[in-house]
Design brief:
The protein is built from twelve helices and nine strands. 38% of the residues lie in helices and 18% in strands.
């Protein structure tokens, strides 16, 4: 399987945990992990392989030097690296038609096979949404979207073949410039705003589970609990400021992250 990640050196530890979790949950799969970055060095990649087995995964360094993004909106939570996934089709090898993008701040707890092999048809992305109802309408108006699917960009199956054929980089920069003052979560604003009609929706409770979604299910008395998550959820995403490696974490899903964290850093290598 081909996996894409984007990060800087601040998320090295989280990336190790994420990759460890997908190796543990997909035992007979070899992963090529393409790391789009502008600042990681040889020491950083050595750090990854200190904890992860070379017979199960390979890291490929994809250096980005996109000067045109110097004026793009960034914050402490949303660095320039988050934009790289938008242009992945132009930086990754041309013989890769599809790739699964994963944020470093998540864990994979079940098989990725069904997700990875999803039929994208002519869609550019397959991704899940975390917003519903009035907020969806607000985003549609704010970003002048064709459809009201506003995605979370932390988990995306990307149709690189279709993106290479149809994506216009100039349109992305024009969108960023035109909507700069309206961008809240910049990268997924751009993807949702430009490509909403080309996004295949995924079930967020299966492929992009969060504490907020779990709370929403409880409030609405739907049958989702920790047991259900263990059996049905594939990816748990710790998006937002509520991170399981922080002491002030609130919720119940941190146990999944801590399980993999303790395993990888206590065992040192995946057995």
């Amino acid at each position: 399987m081909n996996i894409l990640v984007t990060l800087d050196s601040n998320y090295k530890e989280q990336l190790v945990v994420m990759v460890y979790s997908l190796l543990k949950s997909n035992k007979n799969v070899f992963f090529k992990i393409y790391v789009m970055n502008s600042s990681l060095n040889e020491e950083d990649f050595s750090y990854f392989m200190k904890y992860l087995p070379i017979d199960r995964c390979k890291f490929i360094d994809v250096k980005i030097n996109e000067k045109k993004l110097n004026k793009a909106k960034v914050t402490d939570r949303y660095p320039k690296e988050m934009y790289y996934r938008i242009f992945a089709a132009f930086y990754l090898p041309k013989d890769i038609d599809k790739i699964l993008y994963l944020d470093p701040d998540l864990v994979v707890i079940n098989s990725l096979e069904k997700l990875y092999n999803i039929d994208l048809e002519n869609y550019y992305f397959a991704a899940a949404s975390h917003v519903f109802g009035p907020i969806s309408l607000f985003n549609k108006i704010r970003l002048q979207m064709e459809e009201d699917i506003y995605i979370n960009s932390g988990v995306m199956v990307m149709n690189l073949k279709e993106l290479r054929r149809h994506q216009n980089i100039k349109d992305v920069f024009k969108f960023i410039e035109k909507n700069e003052k309206y961008l809240i979560l910049p990268d997924q604003d751009v993807i949702s705003g430009l490509y909403s009609s080309k996004i295949l929706p995924l079930d967020p409770y299966v492929y992009n589970m969060t504490e907020r979604l779990l709370a929403f299910k409880r409030v609405n008395k739907l049958n989702v609990n920790i047991k259900w998550i263990k059996e049905n959820t594939v990816i748990i995403h710790y998006c937002g400021r509520n991170k399981p490696w922080k002491e002030n974490y609130k919720g119940r899903l941190n146990k999944f992250y801590l399980k993999y964290y303790n395993e990888v850093f206590k065992k040192n290598k995946l057995s």
